[in-house]
Amino acid sequence: MRKITSLEINDLPIRFKIIALLLVISILPSIGFGSLISIGVDKVIDKQTTGHTLQLLGQANKSLESYIENMQDISYIISFNPEINTFLQGGGDPGGDNHYGMRQFLQGFTTINPEIAGILVINSKGDYISNEMYAQDFQTVTDEEWYRTAVENNGIFKIIGHPANRSFKTHVNYQNSEIVSGARAIMDPETQTVIGVILIDLKVRVISEVIEDIELGKSGYLMVMDDEGEFIYPPQPLLKDQIQPSWFEKGSSGTFSKSIDGENMQFIYRKSPFANLTTIGIFSSNQSVMEARQINFYVITFLFIVCAFGIGASYYLSYSMSKPINQLNAFMNQVESGDLSIRYKGDRADEIGMLGRSFNKMLEQISKLISLIEIQGRQKRDAELQTLQSQIKPHFLYNTLDTINWMARKKDALDVAEVVESLSQLFRIGLSKGNDIIPLEKEIEHIFSYLKIQKARYKDKLNYSISIDSKLYNLSVVKLILQPIVENAIYHGIKERRGPGHISITGEESNGNLVLYVKDDGVGIPGERLAILNENLSTNFDSLEETKMTNHIGYGVMNVQARIKLTYGEPYGLSIDSLPGKGTTVKILLPLNR
């Protein structure tokens, strides 16, 4: 699949970009919002279903616990009966009248509590009393599992599930699946030994009445399992064979999903510590899914409406925005063909209207600039003609100075000849055929000629020295940067001091730059004036015209600084250091241009 690059996207018409943008900012957030709602609804439904089911399971457990607690209370009441207690201690005849009275006593409990199927009291010898039960085998009663389980619980009432392999039968002949048994061992208060067991059978229909009153959706149901993993009440016998008791070992309550016979089933359970029973709610996951689907249908319908509205709005807005832009583009094409009379006509107040009015102003400015360029072209041609004419004057001046030079030498006026020759050299290098950048060697020749002329004037008052390595002579510099500084040193430093003065010009390469120094031992510069001068030297110059504003602090120095700044930029230029009565040093920092 070919990858779309950013350049290809940029080549698309603006209308398509606007449509894509509006669809992205309207439809994608709506889809994301709808997805979040769908996910949130699923979670809320699951949470509410789980919470509601756990509440129902808690109610079922309370009802079952009340029955179990009633059975436990009955076992306590029976054990406190003096005749029963005597029987448990091993006294009395099983066939005597006392036993008839005790059976009548037990019969009263089953009459008052119809949910009780039968009560059995058996002592440690194997003798028993019951109102509804009779034994089939007298030899193995105390060896049966239910008896041993009761003994192992040391006087704590325990549900032991459906009767299995028990030697007792009831007169009503209940099936094992129709009753659930609970037993409690009776302890001797003095020796803490087991003296007998009270067995109580509870009718399962009581549990079914509690469970059937609780509805879990349309097809959900409840199951009850004891702590041994036996199902006391399974409404679907076939399903219980596929349920593993190990699924419910984690925690006192919980929820999980399992696939049974190809159908995803949701399990929610809650344990009853008092009754040692686990109530399990089972329902198909499709029930919550159907509710979520109904909500998702509304969300999808809403998204469809939003998408339809977004697409229509994006097409309309893109057309309204792209039409004037295309119109401006057509105008620009006409301008490219040379038609500057075209104008945008519209009263829009938005950015496109502003762009159109700016387009009109631009055309007006272009028309004015074209007229101005035509005028400047004529002026340039006139200036070039005047320049060609003015070039005749320097040549005449050079020739005249050469004539004076030779006439002075012919008259043996060598000092006059030397001054005239220096002046001629000064003019020739100063003009430099119109070049602004000259070799450093030429700049040194220029300042040397200037100093020779000044030496002829000031005699012993002025002394000078120039010490620059000849390796630096081929570097290019802005012309006439030393003469204004040397002139200031002579007129404001050497001339004002008593006795002769000295000016030294040195240069070196430092940190990839060319550094020139002009030092004098004149009177120096006062501190206040030096601060003003350095402050003005740090000015950012946009043109040489700005130097006229600094006439009062030395036009020549500021002119040099402005030309260096405008040519090379920062950090190049002049810096001045001076001590009154000691002299002045001007540092010139230039790039190392070879």
TrEMBL record:
SMART domains: HAMP, HATPase_c. Its main location: membrane. The chain crosses the membrane at residues 20-41, 295-317. Residues 481-594 form the Histidine kinase domain. CDD domains: HAMP, PDC2_HK_sensor. It is a multi-pass membrane protein. Residues 319-371 form the HAMP domain. Its EC number is 2.7.13.3. It comes from the Bacteria. It catalyses: ATP + protein L-histidine = ADP + protein N-phospho-L-histidine. InterPro entries: dCache_1, HAMP_dom, HATPase_C_sf, HATPase_dom, His_kinase_dom, HptR, Sig_transdc_His_kin_internal. One of its GO terms (cellular component) is plasma membrane. Keywords: ATP-binding, Cell membrane, Kinase, Membrane, Nucleotide-binding, Phosphoprotein, Transferase, Transmembrane, Transmembrane helix, Two-component regulatory system. One of its GO terms (molecular function) is ATP binding. It is found in: Cell membrane. The keyword NAD does not apply. This is histidine kinase. It comes from Neobacillus niacini.
